[in-house]
Amino acid sequence: MNKISTGQWMTQELERLCLSSDSDFGAFAQPVESDRLMRWTCEAGSRNRRISQMTVKPGVGAAGMALRLGRPYIVNGIGNDSAVRECPVMLAEKLLSAVAMPIPALTGHSAGGVLLLGRRSGLNYGEEDVRLLSAHIPGLLETMRAGLQK
């Protein structure tokens, strides 16, 4: 049996989350050691590879707002074009709605990461989607722990 890497497992988990939430895109960002920023480390459903060059800054975009507020943040773009224009990931991936969730830290960081799901269809996210994401947080934390122990 082949061992699966932490990155591969995270990508598979993102793909499962996208399927179960009718999302077209999913991404996970982790802290950059030397800064307050986070970098996107894995994604599923990307139409281009620009996200790997992007950072998450607190207060900027859906993921940045989830980090700043410390709670899930929803952007439903129909009728809220300014929120979409302020989110680099939503622009690059042509997402019309997104939900972001901060992931608790395993070490000294204020946050261990941020999870982002998005839809290109315009279907809005709601509280049920936040509950679905919350149910996956323990599994993501276990994967992060396993990655730290390697």
UniProtKB/TrEMBL annotation:
This is GAF domain-containing protein. It comes from the Bacteria. Residues 11-134 form the GAF domain. Transmembrane segments: none annotated. Signal peptide: none annotated.
